[in-house]
User: Fold this.
Amino acid sequence: TAEPKIDGLSLSLRYENGVLVQAATRGDGAIGENVTENAKTIADIPHNLTGAPSVLEVRGEVYVTHADFAALNEAQNEKGAKKFANPRNAAAGALRQLDARITATRPLRFFAYAWGALSVPIATTQTGALRHLSDIGFQTNPLTATCDDVKALLEHYQIISDQRATLGYDIDGVVYKVD
Assistant:
């Protein structure tokens, strides 16, 4: 598969019996930050799931769109507050707030792109897993494509590259995954 690599903040969501019980950042790679209450303020993150295994860890990216970033900085400017440097920093800072009420005022979005711990498999392929995540309520990136060979991967890279300036959110490139 080939998909845009969203430039945001990586987030892992743990569901037990369909209920969101924990959200954590990647942190230093070994220990992340618990941001559960803040993650619950993001509209793209379901609090409850139907059709999920008893344990499901969903991995994805929290991000801010360009339009939302511009509006956020305009609001900051009107308040005489410091502007945010870029959408990624705005997303990271918002998700790591000590007060979830502040996080709730920020225009955060979430794309699911993988899974972690599972009680039972959700699919036999990456494509199937993304379809399942979408079916149970997660936003997945519509530019993700299943490719049959290297030529198709490179063609899809070009498609994403050609759209990069008009996607409405920042990306760091393209991620390839074995389906």
Notes: The mean pLDDT is 96.
